[in-house]
Amino acid sequence: MIDLRSDTVTRPSAAMLDAMMAAETGDDVYRDDPTVNALEAEAARLSGKAAALFFPTGTQANLVALLCHCQRGDEYIVGQQAHNYKYEAGGAAVLGSIQPQPILAAADGTLPLHDVAAAIKPDDMHFARTRLLSLENTHHGKVLPLSYLEQAWQFTRERQLALHIDGARIFNAVVAQGVQLIDIARYCDSLTICLSKGLGTPVGSLLCGDEAYIEQARRWRKMTGGGMRQAGILAAAGLYALQHNVARLQEDHDNAAWLGAQLSAIGVEVVSQHTNMLFVKVPAEQVAPLQRWMQAGDVLLSVGPQTRIVTHLDVSRQQLQQLVARWQAFLQP
After folding, report:
1. What is the C-alpha separation between 7 and 60, in angstroms, rounded?
2. Is the preceding peptide bond at 110 cis, omega within 30 degrees of 0?
3. Vertex 28, ends 98 and 219: CA angle to 5°?
4. pLDDT band at 10 (very low <50, low <70, confident <90, very high)
């Protein structure tokens, strides 16, 4: 099966599974799991933050990040298409009583700072209190420029806002820019790192920040049901991923660029390609037939008028060649 719906579908390799089975474990709620402690220490080191906390999911990590920055009745400014606004079931509002203030992102994935400034509420009892700017890196595969992050960091310092980065695919940004994680993380108060997308682990995310922030996050993690026990089995996968699966993300980027060129050559309208994500237009009358055609050939795509294709470590260039051939056969039966 060739599965290009998302990089969340990746499965642990044999070497990663070996590392998981050999993991030393303890009770992480008591902070006694040495492998979890090692993973958190490594995430803190790589990000340049004082501390990190391991979560079962990225949604929970983002929720806790918001809960730590904002109180009931506060507000965070966020992109209209950002994951922690649109795709996480409204958790900040429902569970945290935190009001989102979404704004449209620019074509490059950034939130224009003049629009952010216009969205900040006055200090008036009629309004929610604006406390946080939340950015997403990468955003639909687009890497936020370091120059923009530096400007956003200075902007939030001047306006007494915190800055959070939803870094679900932050290492794709690291690899695409040829930098280290610390070079990006220096421009935020907190960031999340997802381990179960391009890095290939079965589960898990990390939240990084200063020590007081992470202590607060630990309490919220427990309250929201994320306190795990012998979680070292899962943390071992994260350690393996950070050691072995970061540099290879470039293969995914190269494969996405190659695929975009090949699909364009057979007449598919490619809208954009950034890092490991490719977006193509599919005519309305082709959506359902193409979905069935691909599935019959053991290819999984989430076909829609604008179809996202995501490359990852479980899809080879040879398999992408099969995809192109099958698409061409669909267009030219």
Report:
1. 19
2. no
3. 25
4. very high
